[in-house]
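[[Sequence with tokens]]
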Amino acid sequence: MPKKIAHFVLAFFISTTAIMLFFRAPEFFIPFENKVKDLMFKVRGEIKGDENIIIVDIDERSLKALGQWPWSRDKVAILLQNLSDYGVGMIGLDVVFAEPDNSSPKKILQKLNLSYDGVVDYDEVLANTIAQTPTIVGYVFAMQEDSIAPGNSPKTNGIVVERNKPEKSYLLKPYRAILNIDTIEQSAYSSGYFNTVPDSDGNVRSVPLVMEYDGSIYPSLTLEMARIIQNKRKIELFYDDNGMSHIGVGDLHIATDYYGRLNINYRGPQRSYRYISAVDIYEKKLSVDEIEGKIAFLGTSAAGLLDLRSTPFDSVFPGVEVHANALENILSGDFLSKPIWAVGVDTLTIVAGAFFIFLILLLPSAVGSFVLLLALNGTVLFAHYFYMFSYGVIFNTILPFLVINAIFVIGQVLNYFLEIKQKERIKGKFARKVSPAVMNDILLSEDDVLEGKEREITIFFSDVRNFTNISETIGDPKKLIHFMNTYMDPMTEIIVKTGGTVDKFIGDAIMAYWNAPTSVAEHAEKAVIASLEQLHTLRELNKKLRENPEFASVVAMSDAKGVPIVDIGIGLNSGIAIVGEMGSSGRSDYTVIGDPINLGSRLESLCKYYNSKLNISNFTKELLKGDYIYRFLDLVIVKGKSEPVEIWQIHDYDDAREIYLFDVSKEQIKKELTLYHEAIRLYQEASFVKALTLFREIESWESKTNNAIYKIYIERCEHYIEIPPQNFNGVFVHTSKG
């Protein structure tokens, strides 16, 4: 129970702390979460980009052919016009023309104060081309104050409508707009910014679709292109209590985060889309089929032009392709999002993960627990991966992962220390009760051996006869303890050797049992063997005691009374008992309780009454398979019981050994027992006269075993002959313990 409580408290504390951090300080986990999502992208691999989106690349080959960037505006105009002639569907400019073209002839003549009437102006050429082609121009927002005063606002041809806008908006608010020159800006049908805002580690994982500048909302280049493709004027921004939830453009429903950012579902590393060198467009080296009806982004992959980004796939990734990915995500609806209900799923995952780890930690097998941990981790990772790329839903992976593994690791450490403590407790309880082999089995057991449970056992009670006289004769307490240790040591060793557990020593009595705390095959057999071995050992022990001058007084006393120095009686019974740790909170012991224990104690006490050495019940006898010499003693109802019990005496093994516990020959005792059991049969049939005859006959023998038993039955037969019983069933009721 303490182990369960410890693991529950651990799981509750870690999961609660994680949920609090999840809601109060989510930014702490974002860098780790981003790395997990990057890894998922790499595991998924590349997906071919939409063939209808192309990138007109101002690459190194184009720069070599057409000169360094920036090109004169007439070259850019030719590039755009050629695209239009090819039948391009739309052109998005990932470049900004923020300064006039000083290479224009008109600008040169102006500087020289010469007449420029009718002289070509490259800026006007480009502006006219932009006006006559499906070109959406781009611009850039400066996000931080840079000592340059803000100027004009960007031009947009769309209408932005905000729904349920809260008092506080989390939209990005740039400082100023870096626009195209007025000639170009006014000629363009519409425009959009192409800012990419990297995360703290420099990776671009999202793009802001809208920003709030000077009190107005402006769309990104990709969002504006999507609006125009949808042939809609209106862009709707939808908010909830936390911030922006999604953007609506016609039939498009674009999920964003609270800041209005779109999480990009990258198709792969760079060049997932078709790149066409700008010089090939300029020189018209392509067929119409390669361009017609497609959406083209004009941008650069040349390293010297500094439009390279870092993404989950590549550390060097052209910024123009980021916008290509974003546009395809918007048009296809195949973007990544974290809907509000995903927060609830994340919370539930943390709680469920903590609960499952709590259950796993209760398993007895460390290997099995580790396998289940790997399975749980794999399930969480696979589920999050599956939902991310099949449904575009992002869940928090790192926090449940940390919770699951933190609880497991700390829980296993707790298990280690709790098991050490448990083993120390077990060692303390059983160090002197069982053999080292049994102790090892207990420590290796997967069960809590101290926990109370029902179990079939064989209970053993033994008691030293005439112990009061022995203690009085010895007198000296130290000598008495030495005497008892001399007796107890070999008796205990025999019990332990046969797989028994010594429960306690009660003065001169021993209480033990078999089949607990660990299983003992044929426990009744082992108990009988141990009992007979003790009786045989007593013969040798009595010889040693006679030779010890320290116990001369006891020897003299036993000789005077004509009894052995040490004589014992043993009672055995088998049955279902309750075994486990019992006692008070401050003091307890591993022991057994139940009716079988009480009956075992009664059987030992009745050894005196029947003058027997080893009494067993019929419950124990039914479990025995070995060969023994049995004597039926009685069918009785012992004190405190209502059901009759058969009491049997085991004289010894029924084998070929030369030394037996009885002083007559084996043939003689078997002859005696044959006649005795016939007399018992007659007695139980209420043929008391015939039974009495047989009992008296055996009693008259000079050599016989167990004198007392015949006197008992002779007295009973005489009594029943004189006073015949009604409905006699052979049961004798004991009104005392022994």
Notes: Residues 45-332 form one domain.
